[in-house]
Each structure stands twice: as C-alpha cells, then as structure tokens.
Amino acid sequence: MNYQDSRKLQPGKLVVASHNPGKVKEVAALLGPHGIEPVSAGSLGLPEPDETGTTFAANAELKALLAADLSGMPAIADDSGLCVEALGLEPGIFSARWAGPDKDFGLAMRLVEEHLERAGPEAGRNAHFMCALAVAWPDGHLEAFEGRVDGTLVWPPRGNGGFGYDPMFVPNGYDQTFGEMDPDEKHRISHRAMAFEKLKAALL
Ligand code: IMP
C-alpha cells in the first residue's frame, strides 16, 4: 500500500465496486455534489472477486484494485461488519456469511445471541460496527479509510429499520437500536458515515 503521495479524487467517473444498487446510490448522494459520477461495477460487467482478505481493509482494497484495473477508472469499494467482543470480534468479515445463503439476518442475530449466551454474562455484550473504504486508481495507487461505531447488543431485536444486525445494536449514548432509529440519525453516526467523513477530508 502506498500512502506516501496521497492523491485527490478528480471530478468525473468513479466505479463503485459493488453489485448492490444501494451502495451506488449512497456514493451518488455523498460524492455527487463534489462532481463525482458513480458508475456501478455491475453496469460495466465487472466480476465480483472473492473476499479472500483477513481484514475489512484488505477486502475493500482487493475489490477496489480489481475494479480500477479492469475499468481503467478510479474505483471505490467497501467492506463492513459487526465485531462482537465476547466472540473474539466475530462475525467480523464474515458478517454477511453468518446470514446463510438466504441472507436471513434473523438467523444471523440468533446465532450471535446463542454464542453470547454460551460465553456467559461476564463476557459482556459490547460490539462495534466497522467499515473500511478503499479508493484505487488504475496504476495501483490506493487510499483506505476506516470508521467505527461502538455499542451494545440487546435481545430480543427491536425495530424494523435499517438492515443486517441493526435491530440488536444500540450505539453508545443512545437508547434505541439502529433498527428503531430515524435513518437520518443512523446515517449521521454510523461506521460508514465516519469512514466517508475521513475519505472526504482526505480525497476531495
Ligand atoms: P458487506 O456488504 O460485504 O460489507 O457485508 C457487510 C455485512 O455486515 C452486512 O451484510 C451486514 O450483515 C453487516 N453490516 C454492515 N454494516 C451494517 C449496518 O450498518 N447495520 C447492520 N449490519 C451491518
């Protein structure tokens, strides 16, 4: 990774290395006002690489590098997940996989709760969401940023908003879960918001 000559994002096209339309929209909302025009990797027919990294940053970087290399344009990718202290920071980079092939986050949350109960009350219920963002250029230059939000896990899950593990996560300083919270409020304090703030400060 080369952080020595940090680089700015110029107005123009930015490939979003994801096949998730929600992520493309999010980049459009955050970076569109700065003249950045997101293009989805799906619309360019780019493949989705296996997430073989052992950290959030490594996975974001490998996705951004491949998309930049194949498209010849700068590319952005993210990787995120829930890290539970009592579980040795699992599910971590495997957060999506804990939901199984049907992407059943009711199941994933139950699994987390079962593991917490097995760990016992003294292990505590602290957890954090992590988000890594990486921007890569076709010449292999990389810039990466991480955001984190700390909180505790509740059971049973509460609220229908958000996605993934939101209904069992209460951020520190709040009473509501991410699933109960007004979406604008979540987007203001989330791990993803923190990572984007750092990215904007460095690259725009
Ligand atoms: P990714 O799309 O590979 O980054 O997978 C991230 C997974 O982590 C998602 O499928 C969710 O399970 C979990 N996750 C990441 N961010 C959040 C969040 O803000 N709320 C709830 N779950 C999240």
From TrEMBL:
GO biological process, one term: nucleotide metabolic process
GO molecular function: dITP diphosphatase activity; ITP diphosphatase activity; metal ion binding; nucleotide binding; ribonucleoside triphosphate phosphatase activity; XTP diphosphatase activity
Entry superkingdom: Bacteria
Class in the EC hierarchy, top level: hydrolase
Gene3D superfamilies: 3.90.950.10
Function, in words: Pyrophosphatase that catalyzes the hydrolysis of nucleoside triphosphates to their monophosphate derivatives, with a high preference for the non-canonical purine nucleotides XTP (xanthosine triphosphate), dITP (deoxyinosine triphosphate) and ITP. Seems to function as a house-cleaning enzyme that removes non-canonical purine nucleotides from the nucleotide pool, thus preventing their incorporation into DNA/RNA and avoiding chromosomal lesions.
Subunit structure as annotated in this protein's UniProt entry: Homodimer.
Family: Belongs to the HAM1 NTPase family.
The name this protein goes by in its record: dITP/XTP pyrophosphatase
Record organism: Sphingomonas horti
